[in-house]
From TrEMBL:
Coiled coil: none annotated. SUPFAM superfamilies: LDH C-terminal domain-like, NAD(P)-binding Rossmann-fold domains. It comes from Streptomyces cacaoi. The lineage of its organism: Bacteria, Bacillati, Actinomycetota, Actinomycetes, Kitasatosporales. The active site is at 184 (proton donor), 263 (proton acceptor). PROSITE patterns: GLYCOSYL_HYDROL_F4. This is 6-phospho-beta-glucosidase.
Length: 457
């Protein structure tokens, strides 16, 4: 594919191939569902072939049967193929979704339990757990990036793999701007805030900048360019009608003056979130290990229709229980349907793919090299920021500079991220200790050393 030329218009109409690494992942049917919606519409440049690759053949079989049930009766549904190996999966791909979980949910449980055993937060992407997850994942992500460069240098890689900021930072060292990291939490925040401010989420303009799972919405503008954030911050009822407002509380949000990503709850309310996570009978990873393990075990013996129904039930339960400890720490409220409105990873990924493949200009919050967006960071450092995307890829838009408190956290976390990448690349124990010991949620380098030892990192 020539950069800047939409896939569908390269010569005559041609097929579009999407490869998913981590094709046996539980959320793959959501991506497939979004592809089916495009097939129903007969959209030009839509995906015609879906290639799945996974290291776990059993899970692949289950996911493939869920996809088969889901595609039944949909004309133009993409052909699904299971790849023989990584290179086979990558060759000929226009887009590669990298959505792997190195170490599986068992690894996630260790990333939570080891820090918790030392009195630190145990969480998948934040704090010591996120650093441990990065140390394990980056070498695999780099291998993938190298194989993409070798066999599919024209492909766009959309990285879903967590911790998405660090993994994208590492892959960009190999692939440059051909890798784009995504997350569903920023768009979720924007849409929820817009609705609470009485605006149409599809038409607002906004400034959102930070790092992955560490960003802030600092401006929200209506169709006439009017600033909506001060009014929203002043209106307690509207402000506490949605997820982030309930998590952080009106008083703190007014003191802060910006709307933080939900993951900042682990930083601003570190005492409460740590206590809630420590008190819970099981960690999120343990819950998912049980829930997902149950699903894959039960679905393996069922026909496609039953597997699909079981998947749908399991998915709903997973969404409803998301960030349960944080909600427990703030009064035990339930997620509402509007809190799920971000659309999830699948929607962000599909919107991005559509914009590139069809050259349709759109705005998305993405993890890309900042190129001066945040003046204090080097241009090639990955930031999560508002981008304009078209056939030539994403370009960060100028946004308001983060305030000193936000910038301070970003710089500290960027040092952590870069140390984690260096540690994973070189195997340097010092770099790993730097990554862990510099994390604002790790309160002692001596503890950091013990955590590294226990993790065998
Ligand atoms: C959000 C985050 C993702 C994360 C997911 C965890 O969508 O943006 O980065 O992977 O939550 O959900 P889970 O059900 O795995 O706890
Ligand atoms: Mn995310």
């Amino acid at each position: 594919m020539t950069p800047g030329v939409p896939v569908a218009f390269c010569g005559t109409f041609r097929l579009m191939r999407l490869t998913i690494l981590g094709g046996g992942g539980f959320r793959v049917p959501l991506v497939h569902r979004a592809l089916l919606a495009e097939a129903r519409l007969g959209s030009p440049g839509r995906c015609t072939e879906l290639v799945l690759y996974d290291t776990d053949p059993e899970r692949l079989r289950v996911v493939a049967s869920v996809l088969a049930a889901q595609a039944e009766g949909v004309p133009g549904a993409p052909a699904v193929r299971i790849a023989d190996g990584l290179d086979d999966a990558l060759r000929g791909a226009d887009f590669v979704f990298s959505a792997i979980r190195v170490g599986g949910t068992a690894g996630r449980v260790r990333d939570e339990r080891i820090p918790l055993g030392e009195g630190l937060l145990g969480q998948e992407t934040v704090g010591a757990g996120g650093v441990l997850y990065a140390l394990r994942t980056v070498p695999v992500a780099l291998h993938i990036a190298e194989r993409v460069r070798a066999v599919a240098p024209e492909a766009w890689v959309i990285n879903f793999t967590n911790p998405a900021g660090i993994v994208t930072e590492a892959m960009a060292r190999v692939l440059g701007e051909r890798v784009i990291g995504i997350c569903d939490s920023p768009v979720g925040l924007v849409r929820r805030a817009a609705r609470a401010a009485g605006a149409d989420p599809d038409t607002v303009r906004f400034d959102y900048t930070g790092l992955n799972h560490l960003g802030w919405l600092s401006s929200l503008r209506g169709p006439g360019g009017e600033e909506l954030l001060p009014g929203l911050l002043a209106d307690t009822e509207a402000l506490t009608s949605f997820e982030e407002g309930k998590l952080f509380g009106a008083t703190w949000l007014r003191a802060l003056g910006v709307l933080p990503n939900e993951y900042l709850h682990y930083y601003y309310f570190r005492r409460e979130t740590l206590a809630a996570v420590r008190q819970a009978d099981e960690t999120r990873g343990e819950f998912l290990d049980r829930q997902q393990g149950g699903f894959f075990g039960a679905a393996a013996g069922r026909d496609a229709g039953e597997a699909y129904a079981l998947w749908e039930r399991t998915r709903r339960e997973r969404e409803e229980t998301y960030m349960a400890e944080s909600r427990e720490a703030t009064g035990g409220w339930q997620r509402e349907s509007c809190d799920l409105d971000g659309g999830g990873y699948d929607q962000v990924a599909l919107a991005l793919m559509r914009a590139i493949a069809r050259g349709e200009r759109t705005r998305l919050v993405l993890n890309v090299p900042g190129r001066g967006t945040v003046a204090a960071l080097p241009g090639d450092a990955i930031v999560e920021t508002v981008c304009e995307v078209d056939g030539s890829g994403p370009r960060p838009l100028p946004v308001a500079q983060p305030g000193p408190a936000e910038l301070g956290l970003m710089l500290q976390l960027k040092a952590v991220e870069q140390a984690a990448v260096d540690a994973a690349v070189s195997g340097s124990r010092r770099a790993a200790l730097r990554a862990l010991g510099l994390h604002p949620l790790v309160d002692s380098p001596a503890v950091a050393e013990r955590v590294l030892e226990r993790a065998g990192a």
